[in-house]
Specification:
Elements (H helix, E strand, L loop, with lengths): L7 H7 L10 H11 L12 H7 L4 H15 L3 H35 L3 E6 L2 E6 L8 E5 L7 E13 L1 H4 L5 E2 L18 E2 L4 E13 L5 H4 L13 H30 L4 H15 L4 H18 L2 E3 L3 H6 L4 E5 L10 E7 L2 E5 L10 E3 L2 E3 L5 H12 L4 E5 L2 E5 L2 H12 L4 H7 L1 E9 L4 E7 L5 E7 L1 H6 L1 E6 L2 E4 L2 H16 L3 E9 L10 H4 L3 E10 L6 H10 L3 E5 L4 H11 L7 E4 H6 L2 H7 L3 E5 L3 H13 L4 E5 L5 H6 L2 E5 L5 H6 L2 E3 L4 H41 L8 H19 L25 H26 L4 H22 L15 H19 L4 H4 L6 H26 L1
Helix pairs in contact: 3-5, 4-5, 4-9, 5-10, 5-26, 8-9, 8-25, 9-26, 10-25, 12-13, 16-19, 21-22, 25-26, 25-27, 25-28, 26-28, 26-29, 27-28, 27-31, 28-29, 28-31
This protein binds adenosine-5'-triphosphate.
Protein name: P-type Ca(2+) transporter
GO cellular component, one term: plasma membrane
Catalytic activity: Ca(2+)(in) + ATP + H2O = Ca(2+)(out) + ADP + phosphate + H(+)
Amino acid sequence: MKYHEMRQEDIEKSLNTNYTNGLSEEDVSLRRKQFGYNQLEEAEKQSNLLLFFSQFKDFMVLVLLAATLISGLLGEYIDAVAIIAIVLINGFLGFFQERKAEKSLQALRELSAPQVNVLRDGSWVKILSREVTVGDIIRFASGDRIGADVRLINANNLEIEESALTGESVPVAKSINPVTGDHVSLGDLENMAFMGTMVTRGNGTGVVTAIGMKTAMGQIADMLQKAESMVTPLQRRLEELGKILITVALILTALVVGVGVIQGHDIYTMFLAGVSLAVAAIPEGLPAIVTVALSLGVQRMIKKKAIVRKLPAVETLGCASVICSDKTGTLTQNKMTVTHLWSGGKTWSVTGTGYEPDGQFYSGEERVSPNNQKALNQLLTFGMLCNHAELVTRDDSFMVDGDPTEGALLVAGLKAGLNRDLLLQKFKIIKEFPFDSTRKMMSVIVIDQNGKQFSVTKGAPDVLAAKSESILWDNRLQMKTGELFKEVESAIGEMSSNALRNIAIAYKPLNGIKAETLYEKDVEEGFTFIGLQGMIDPPRPEVKQAVRECKAAGIKTVMITGDHVLTAKAIAAQLGILKKNDKVLDGKALNEMDVEELQEVVEDVSVFARVSPEHKLKIVKALQNRGHVVAMTGDGVNDAPAIKSADIGVAMGITGTDVAKESSSLVLLDDNFATIKSAIQEGRNIYENIRKFIRYLLASNVGEILVMLFAMLLALPLPLVPIQILWVNLVTDGLPAMALGLDKPEDDVMKRKPRNMNEGVFARGLGWKVVSRGFLIGLVTLFAFMLAYKAHPDHLAYAQTVAFATLVMAQLIHVFDCRSEVSVFSRNPFGNMYLVWAVLSSLVLMLLVIYIPSLQPIFHTVPIQLKDWMLIIGLSSVPTFLLAGSFFARKK
Ligand code: ATP
């Protein structure tokens, strides 16, 4: 028999598991041996050897190798071996960079790997989805992705979207009864849930019947989830730019060779010089360095508790101009404590902080016992019944397992001496309608000891008040008159404007109606309103500062919350989000506006209250239409569309559902607003660092080409020999460029306006900086060559060595310039020690090449006299002083 046809108890036996305790760790390790891990087999990775060889597939590198081979055959052994060695080292570098980039991307994927809630040895634990095995009992709720194929044991309003398997996007309602009949299709298996499908509503438990490649998902291998695009807009632009640069480099090189030949140089030398120049001038390492810079930045973000799920987000982050943030848990601590209660015109306060179940109840100044106050007692009792949270102790402190709002209600009940286990014996829960932020409430149907059946609902006070027919007032049931309703409203208003987050409790008698026939709409209206529990949810201490920094960075913070307008306003004002002239819009107002209308006012709104997740999409669209780059946070299933359409979708790591996380490009491990700010800061920094090394590398290349071109045009001998050009390309260009990728941000990165999303690689003067500096580097190198050649007309190698040293020095000085958009003098040269070490090693390597006798024949160098170093240092620092001087002149 198949699992879907069997009765639940038979499955328990056949899979040799236990529905109450789950599997034991021993069972698990035995089963792991039998079934393996719960994972889909991945496509094979490119092998190391292949990746290594792919480093040499570049056309110019092949030409260089061929040319070298020819020169080897012609007897130029030393040159040939040296060139091949350099090409090989370059290949290795490229190989390691790519592997590193790949590894960090892989690590990223693993960090966002899905988790599953399983019952092991009698308690519920969260484990990685790959650790799940056959016979495990797992549970899931709205927003979760199912981790394996399961037969359902429990289904509470459970609906699952199975489009990944069936193509059908309408969610399927699930039940637990056996399904029989021939030819049932996957879509008909109502009592099964499949790996990779999404819970869109309700919750449930199930027993795992298949894992890994044995699941329905595993069997349709071609439908496996495709990896997200990991190429960023800048990388794409660089790719296009790369093609242009190659063409330009080739044309210029051809020019150098052509002019050289016309001026009488021998063809063979010019050819080798030309090819070396082309190899040096084509920035083939750029994409890999960009990837490494991006992924190192991503690692730094992880340290700051932000996980980038899609690499392009790293760049987009730097462009963000609005952050729309949830309130609860992101701007606030989500550590809730009930401090005030209200029912029928009476108010009570409760003492105690945090989740410690210790506190007293007061009515005004007078201490009261909740057991003697019927309304208060009922408020607390129902708050505990309609509740899933558990109080646990960890490291000697009390913590809540579950929803903090419910935790607060639980603790309030415990403070009054109520015991949930006893309550659950008195009131048997027979059905539940789980909370969702669109309805803003949750209900349970219970039967008490006398067989009376009724429902208890808790939720947003204004919603419940509006749907109530009667109100419990002074322990008596009263019809909801206009006057009483006003009293309730003003109690809600009063508590909310003191920044309390309120939950209302209501009930509804349902005698004699079969629970199976009852749906949300039957239960969740026509209530009797009992009262309110008001809880404080203190703002996160670091948020105020983060909001201020964002403002300085030209980024507006907008609060979006399901909470009451007044609560939202009070907290937004405390955090500096709501300023004097800012507007507050609520869900009702949003319902009445279309995107165009919202667009008109959206710039002035800093708080959206009482919104449903659906409104978030409208807000994103309106802001985007106004030209904003929007970061939007979210945690639930219904937040997914908004998260997806935002420029940067941000999901909560702790409270976020799988659906939200999978739609997002950034996950906050600590759910903290301040983390978004840090990520933006890091995003800006990464982009600036990439600009820095693009500037460095391209200017260096321009300099290398121009010095050769100038020399040919002036009918001079070759100022640099091929191997020297290759050496500069490997050492002087490579190391410092990597170090620039690790540079710290300039002091004012968070004081600048956000970058324009569409800005090109050469925007903000970068193109000019590259060309002008490249020109100057070329010029001073040529000048040094000419002076040295004039002084030693019979000793070309000497002049070439001077030119080589000048080129290297000019670049190594230039690299410090690249650290700042403003001027080299605005930054401490020792601020980036990686760079200092990279520059020092390049210098030492240059000196070795010049002064070690055994290296001299390989690199065609000769020792430089001390007095000529003055000339080299003087000339190579000219560009920096010239350009810095022109900067200061402009500033004046
Ligand atoms: P944010 O959107 O900032 O995270 P939020 O938690 O207030 O804020 P929702 O989760 O959409 O937003 O909740 C909306 C309202 O529903 C809350 O203001 C509260 O009144 C009510 N509510 C929240 N959690 C529960 C719950 N577990 N059971 C019943 N009602 C709840």
